[in-house]
Amino acid sequence: MAGAAFAGIGVTPAWAQVAEGIAAGPEITVTARRQDETLSEVPASITVLTGEDLQAKGIVTTEQAIAATPGVTIVSNSAQVGDAQINIRGVNGARDAENNVALVVDGILKTNTAAVNQYQGALQQFEILKGPQGAYYGRGATAGVIVMTTKMPSDSFEASGRAYWATQDSQLAEGSISGPLGENTGFVLFGQYRHTNGFYENVGTDSRTQGKTMDTYEGWGLGGRLYSEPTDRLTLDAKFRYGKVEAGALNFTAIFALPDFASVLGIPEYAENVNDHEDFQYRRNVPSIDNQRTIEASFKADYAFDGAKLSAWAAFSDIDETFYADTTGASLGRFNAQASCQQSVADLYAQGVVLQAPLYLGPTPGASTLGAYSPTTCDGIQVTLRDQRDVSAEIRLVSDTASPLQWSIGAYYLHINRHYATALNEDDGGPVVVSLYNAPGTPNQTSQLFDDRFKTNVYAGFGSLQYELGDALTLSAALRYDREERTVTPLVPDVIDPITGASINPGYDVGTLAPQSRSYQQLQPKFTARYEFTPDFNVYLDYGVGFKAGGFNSQGSAALVDLYFNQALGSNIGIEDDYKKEVSHALEAGFKASLANGSVQVSGAVYRNIVEDMQFFEFYTGTFGILRVVSNIDKVRLMGAELGVVWKVAEGFTLDAGGNVLDSKIISNSVRPDTEGNKSPYSADYTLNLGATVVQPVSDSVDFTFRADYRLTGPTWFHVVQAQERRTIFDLFYPGLGTADYSGTKRDTYGIVNLRAGLKGEGWNLTGFVNNFFKTRYLEEVIPAPEFGGSFVTPGAQRQIGIEAGFSF
């Protein structure tokens, strides 16, 4: 299991000499730089998980693969199932913006952020290449690239699969079959079903939510692949995938940061450090339900000329997602005057319902402190829709000779049609009407609506050169030009909110909502040098530019922030209805070494990255309702170092360690100028991975297997506002008491231990596992809302115990 050990730090023993008496594994081929290379040849920090590694670590999801990689973190599934924010060395993916990490599956570039966490098929290899890869992948690779390789058809019939049963009523069943269809054609069929009840129960008394959990998940996917070689020069590769998911949504608890409230009222929970909140009580009266449907298809053709290979592909993706859930309307009394709100408060008060401190339930809404996500109907119902359909195509010509000079040239096109909307509807206590707009007087009448259609066209051209100057020095250069043309069309009707009497979208209160257009373009060069001193030691230097296009917020966002925060509170927040492109300039120097006759491998790197206009997600709530926007941080400096060591102690026994240390700093931020000097949000100060793999025979045909993994994640701020104070909307109602202190919103360091042990024979394995062995409590995400007076917090996964069985023949 040497490959599994090296996956944690991005090196593998396959490229080094092997200690006497210890067998070498096969050399690993990677494709993260758009060409086939051995892992030792890649002049970059790269993590590779082979099929054996994925099995040994029990990896099922992208989150689990990322947890095996130092310097990379992910936040996913806290808001919705299609939500995944990956952070690589301080470059974070902003929720509601475009990808910051390119996702490539079998050579096809995926463009929808919702695809990152989806089942892609029978996975054979997982690669993470760190640093901007815009020269190779364009607009969505400012932080790095994830490359997934799935199973190819086999020459004879094969079948494989695995299933597990675990606590929290968790089950997994997945498998694939493959075989020939004639002399030069083969197929793969694959499928997966995964279910869990989750860890956090909704304990509210409403019949709509009793017995339900907040982090439930049930999903399935089916797909197929047809691969053909009609001639010795031509290959054809067609794929199709369909899947559905039903899961929880908005798994947040509001935690306040109002020290004056705590002091005057004698209720310490009004100023609670987010790390001290251990009792996550969910008492919602509206079920949190998220539905996602995916249809994807692609076709790829390769033709080998004499001295060059032509590759072309086209892909179609259609991912629709809609969720509804309890929301935050009760925190400032938006629906207090509604009969349904008043009646639900009176009924719950008569039942003797007690809310978790610092909240209080009185006989009327006005006599209560309800907070967000309460068991009453006073919160309203949030309905969010994100539907995206995209079509993309690429053509590439690559040299294919033994010459010292290698080259490539190509072009790319992408069209995106995205519909994004969020509605705040009244909760009248009846069945939920899942609709973006319900007219006044109808069930769940709409009080606020952001609704826009976004269309995008992307055009790109690219090329690369690589030259070997003798046996030791290799130089490479790549260049890509992306142009992105984006439009937004508001779909919100110009009608009055029946609850407040204002417009249903605040943009109408200051003018009209009109279509907007913007274009973004960027040259993305990349230069790399690699020098091999000996077969056991090489160094590299890498410089690259990353680019993520700008875009549009929901139209009316700027008007809302200006009216409710800048004018009312004097906040001076620079939110706009559009946000700028993000550009990064990264420099990395690293080495790879083999010591002690190959039994010890060491790799390391230092890096520095200047990010201009880093995109950042913010959540606002108040008497106006709710708002999600993307803003820009003008300039962020990121610098750090990585080091990894793998020691193959003996045949069947390997130890590995890898770590990353990050120093980040906001240099300038015109959106919130007083945050300059703070750290980059969502960026852990350090990560550490430790692991041990044991494979020992217990008979001639059976091996005992053991894998232990420890992941340490350092302190993390999630907002640009950090150890600072803010005047909040509560100060408008309680003058002198509404100043919030956000020094307690940094997530503490936490460590997770996962253990696996079992037996493995020819074509079968049986493994017991414990995830989060020590029941470590940690936070998945903290979303401070500075002008609200608190944070919205999602707890992390608890301990899970299960047994897994697998087969292959």
UniProtKB/TrEMBL annotation:
Domain TonB-dependent receptor plug: 39-145
PROSITE patterns: TONB_DEPENDENT_REC_3 (PS52016)
InterPro entries: Beta-barrel_TonB, Beta-barrel_TonB_sf, Plug_dom, TonB-dep_rcpt-like
Main localisation: membrane
Any Pfam family matching the protein: Plug
BP term (GO), one: iron ion transport
Stretches assigned to the TonB-dependent receptor-like beta-barrel domain: 277-772
Location of the protein in the cell: Cell outer membrane
Membrane topology of this protein: Multi-pass membrane protein
Gene Ontology CC terms: cell outer membrane
Keywords: Cell outer membrane, Ion transport, Iron, Iron transport, Membrane, Receptor, TonB box, Transmembrane, Transmembrane beta strand, Transport
Family: Belongs to the TonB-dependent receptor family.
Name under which the protein is recorded: TonB-dependent receptor
Organism: Novosphingobium aureum
Lineage summary: Bacteria, Pseudomonadati, Pseudomonadota, Alphaproteobacteria, Sphingomonadales
